[in-house]
Amino acid sequence: MIKVLAALFIAAGGILYSVRAAAGGNRETAPAASEAVNGELPPESFAPELIPGAGAPGFRETRALAEAYPGRIAERSFRDGDWALRIDDSWYFWANGRMMPEAERSRWKEFTGLRFYNYPRGLPPVPQLDEQTKARLRDRLAADRENPPARNEAFLSHLLEAPTREAAESQLVRVTLMGFPVRLHKLAAEKLELVDRDLKILVQTDGEVRRFLEGISHLGGFYWRPIAGTASRSYHGYGLALDFMAKDWGGKPYYWRNIMTRDKNWFELPYEKRWMAPLALIEVFEKHSFIWGGKWLYFDTVHFEYRPELFLLNPRA
Ligand SMILES: [Zn+2]
Q1: Which of 33, 128, 247, 293 sits at a 20 to 30 Å CA gap from 136?
Q2: Domain range for residue 137?
Q3: What is the rounded average pLDDT of the residues 119-131?
Q4: Which residues sit with Cβ closer than 5 angstroms to ligand 1, an ion?
């Protein structure tokens, strides 16, 4: 019997889902949720077993972050039993995904982690959740309402030189994407210019992408605000995210919170009933390390986010 197991990354703020098929009743072959981040380790050198900490949690994720931000992360090392990254003179510890400042390592349980996940290529199937998983999802949403999750912002703030609103604004660069102005963090803006270059070529032959862009009224980039329903700063508050705003949504939701009160099974809403972006356009963004929020369980189909570390974690096959 083949049974579908849903391995869910459930947390507020737009998290990806992965639904995997596994042989029913055979626990040996059932994938664990943690496999997504702690799967088989690609070799770092000819003898990875000789690297201290190679099997420890955070090995791959800290390596991806160090590769993604070479101008900011000066050093990566296995220290005091955990992987750590150095920015200027400060060390940040993996701390079960929380990336905690050295002096606050022991407080990691008070925070939610940075999100690392297997970002799929192409359009993943819309999830069909079993009753048990739906119940877990509802419980989690209720718990989050009571006690909104909060990320420890120290690492991202230091990485992006954006501890305050003023500092975050000082990192912004104004760029245009297909004629639409938007302000992004300088590191993301640089990549958006490459997206713009590729889209200008794509629209010459792709009518669907051309019509999509004709239906856009403006772009949203930097907003100083938390993720709705959480106490974590949105990636928009770092200037790493942008939203396509449509002239007319055609009555379709683009954000899970648009319909969650109307449709209790909002996560099963078929793609054709959601406001969508063309796959060819999404792929151009992905080529330059922006993920699309339309692939999250907590879907946000207007949202693109600069996450180079996720592409380094999941290299194109
Ligand atoms: Zn957004």
Answers
A1: 293
A2: 131-313
A3: 91
A4: 241, 243, 303
